[in-house]
Design a protein that fits this description.
The two termini are 13 Å apart. This protein has 49 residues and is of the alpha+beta class. It is built from three helices and three strands, in the order βααββα. Helices cover 45% and strands 22% of the residues. InterPro entries: AlpA (IPR010260), Prophage_regulatory_activator (IPR052931). Pfam families: Phage_AlpA (PF05930). This is Prophage CP4-57 regulatory protein (AlpA).
């Protein structure tokens, strides 16, 4: 599994950061997982699906 940072996710989906987080809140976008205390990432497989 490849972990994508927010900047990589935004490039893949061509959306803005606020739009992505709004879609997460509406359960319309995959939720990130925590990789450290203050960093999250997304599964590349979920983003590509």
């Amino acid at each position: 599994m490849n972990a994508l940072k927010i900047k990589d996710v935004l490039k893949k989906v061509s959306l803005g950061q606020s739009t992505v987080y709004k879609m997460i809140a509406e359960d319309k976008f995959p939720k990130p997982f925590r990789i450290s205390d203050n960093r999250v990432a997304w599964s590349e497989e979920e983003i590509d699906a």
